[in-house]
Amino acid sequence: MAQTLRFVKSLPKRERQPLANKFKNADADAVDLLERMLVFNPKQRIQASEALAHEYLAPYHDPTDEPVSQEKFDWSFNDADLPVDTWKIMMYSEILDFHNIEQGNEAGEVLVQGAVQGNATGQAFA
């Protein structure tokens, strides 16, 4: 992560181009929200709760139906130093879970084996 940040900071500085100039026909509130969301520094970026309360999202905003987590999300799993093949299998497993395919069933088992063995089924991860 530190290397990525160092790389990004080493890039040449460019003058900011206002999004309003790029999206001349867009709603001003939409552009404002987008600009606040696309801030590189997370400490200066709009918070999720603030974004939900933004004027552009007013028609959809319902504070009674927008729970706020009391705990920060733990991203430490992202720091694991694992082989690439392990990351591939983990990602594939998440995709299967997302699509409600149980890995114990025949289809899911074949797909996972394919990803591990690197056959045609697993080539998408190569």
From TrEMBL:
User: In its UniProt entry, what is this protein called?
Assistant: Protein kinase domain-containing protein
Its keywords, alphabetically, are: ATP-binding, Kinase, Nucleotide-binding, Serine/threonine-protein kinase, Transferase
Entry-linked InterPro entries: Kinase-like_dom_sf (IPR011009), MAPK (IPR050117)
The keyword Nucleotide-binding is assigned to this record: yes
- What would you give as a GO molecular function for this chain, any one? ATP binding
